[in-house]
């Protein structure tokens, strides 16, 4: 006998048009090989500059900021190559990469970032939670550069729990006032040059941010304890992020946030985060619409997801639009890489009428895993409902196929809006076990199910 949960799902699907399975000509996955052919990691001349030759000392105490700066400048002036971080623990403030520079963190090497906010001054142009401003420099930063990389089997340690960062937001800390002020500036159209934070303010900087860059590589490094988002390409193109490990425990420390960026390949990475694992973004509210650059052509493959919220996430800062996101063969809550938190939603899409814009095409296949904390797919078009808006918002073309997950509250939580329906959600050849409750489906058109089994019953 079908469970009550299965009957509810079947009834919801039968009330929606388009139950026939799309034929192969509609298969979005045929675009992935073309996208991947367009993504090529940068290459660097076979020259190297050892930071110890510029005065760096790997004792974990000596300030090596000037040594990093000088080594990067020398490498760039010579036409590019490798800035080598040898074994040891090297304390530093902000590192600013230049074109043609590969920052190589050797096995046994650690870059330990200062816990003093003044080490990230002067302010730089950045995007903070999707709104442009001037703020503390990200720990590793590049703007307007080509052919830049962070590689090696060493570690980047943000030391966030040793610094003041948590106190800035926890228990009603001072970050909230600056956050509200920046968002109001974005909504009011205040010129970006006047949105200056930094000293005397409390907006935590990202760990690694590439702004307006082309040909970017982050490979193999382990990244510990960022103060905020971990790897954040912004308005950038041709990005490869591969075989990295992220461990974060502070609030709002996403693993990787491609933002208003295109042709991004994230693969063979491990994420243990206190927020979303991979979160695709494109700017927030009026400021995101002003910039108006979407994220598109993003491929995520063979990653391990352990994070407090989403596995593959879109939004909530999506006001520039998001199109063509593909994720495959990822493992949710892998026993081989247990995280601090179980994933709440393997697929999590957040939008709203204050954000506006669109999400068109989020495609998942071959996910496996267990122990999902809430629903397997949560699409929420009423995200941040306390921030009312009147803009049209579109979320459409969400697919999942060939997925096997054991343990969740439900398979689907689909929250469309009465004024803006969620459109075209398709599940194909999926098996879900250990599902304890019914789906929730509101204002959704074109829900299609084919060979979907829940607790052993086809629905």
From TrEMBL:
Keywords: Glycosidase, Hydrolase, Signal
Family of this protein: Belongs to the glycosyl hydrolase 28 family.
GO molecular function annotations of the record: polygalacturonase activity
SMART domains: PbH1
Signal sequence, renumbered to the chain: 1-22
Record-given protein name: Polygalacturonase
GO process terms (BP): carbohydrate metabolic process
SUPFAM superfamilies (UniProt xref): Pectin lyase-like
Keyword Hydrolase: yes
InterPro entries assigned to the protein according to its UniProt record, in alphabetical order: GH28_Enzymes (IPR051801), Glyco_hydro_28 (IPR000743), PbH1 (IPR006626), Pectin_lyas_fold (IPR012334), Pectin_lyase_fold/virulence (IPR011050)
